[in-house]
Design a protein that fits this description.
The protein is α/β, with parallel strands linked by helices. The chain has ten helices and nine strands. It has a single domain (12-147, 161-193, 235-246), classed as Rossmann fold, CATH 3.40.50. The strands form two sheets. Strands 3-2-1-4-5-9-6 form a seven-stranded mixed sheet, sandwiched between helices. The chain has a two-stranded antiparallel ribbon with strand order 7-8. Helix 5 (119-127) links the parallel strand 4 (104-110) and strand 5 (130-141). The longest helix has 14 residues, at 216-229.
């Protein structure tokens, strides 16, 4: 059961301390893309800026727009990459038209787009800031992602804020938004968490939206209830991967 909830703030420092598996996914995504040294690239959902920093290494004459909806995340990213003149930091909601002054050559996004519930609108927003012929590269939660946690929440009578899309519906949404050469696939990427960090990981990376709606005591109780019902301290991540190209102006 998915519902739509307003954007929230994140504990950026704790997230940064727990986000090594997510950063590794981001680096793997960058490794599959052939950037030109002078490309202008949007990191859509930059978090604490660790993937943006890796992206800068691949763009010696380029530019990175590091965008996130959380002020705390943008501030944390600024502390990491904000002194680099090739970086522009932007706070914006990916569910709304993006406030970029000029188009980008590519958009990369890791561990983010499943937080945006209306993917057809989201892909139109991204297409609008990519130059004709530019590219989109995504890793996010896909159909079946963290299935055990979703099932536990349902058993507890809780909805969730995630949009875990499948391949066919994603292909259709991308095509409708003007993308071509679309490649979409799902992949398993389970992540084990140290038992003594499980509750922190749940509270910060997974259930933060649920906690934002509760008192501190009620939030702790929910985290403990979910943690106690998990069979092992591991998250059965299923990733939705996307490579696509915005149609050129001459495409029919």
């Amino acid at each position: 059961m998915t519902d739509r909830r307003p954007a929230r703030e994140w504990d950026a420092d704790l997230y940064d301390a727990l986000s090594t598996p997510l950063t590794a996914r981001g680096i793997a995504l960058l490794d599959r893309v052939s950037f030109r040294p002078s490309d202008r690239v949007l990191d859509a959902g930059c978090g604490t800026g660790r993937v943006s920093a890796a992206l800068l290494e691949r763009l010696p004459a380029g530019e990175v727009i590091a965008l996130d909806g959380s002020a705390a995340m943008v501030d944390r990213a600024r502390a990491l990459v904000g002194d680099d003149p090739r970086v522009t930091l932007v706070r914006a909601d990916l569910g709304e038209p993006l406030p970029l002054a000029s188009p980008v050559d590519a958009v990369v996004s890791t561990s983010t787009l499943h937080w945006v519930p209306e993917h057809p609108r989201l892909f139109r927003n991204l297409a609008a800031v990519i130059r004709p012929g530019g590219s989109l590269h995504v890793d996010c939660g896909g159909e079946g992602n963290i299935g055990e946690v979703v099932e536990i929440l349902g058993d507890l009578g809780e909805s969730h804020p995630w949009f875990f899309s499948g391949v066919a519906e994603t292909e259709t949404a991308l095509a409708d938004a003007g993308f071509r050469d679309v490649r979409v696939w799902l992949s398993d990427d389970p992540v084990a968490v140290a038992p003594d960090r499980l509750e922190d990981y749940l509270a910060t990376v997974v259930l933060g939206t649920h906690l934002a709606e509760r008192s501190a005591d009620a939030g702790r109780k929910l985290v403990r209830r979910v943690a106690s019902r998990m069979t092992v301290p591991r998250f059965d991540y299923v990733r939705l991967n996307i490579d696509a190209r915005r149609a050129s102006a001459t495409a029919s």
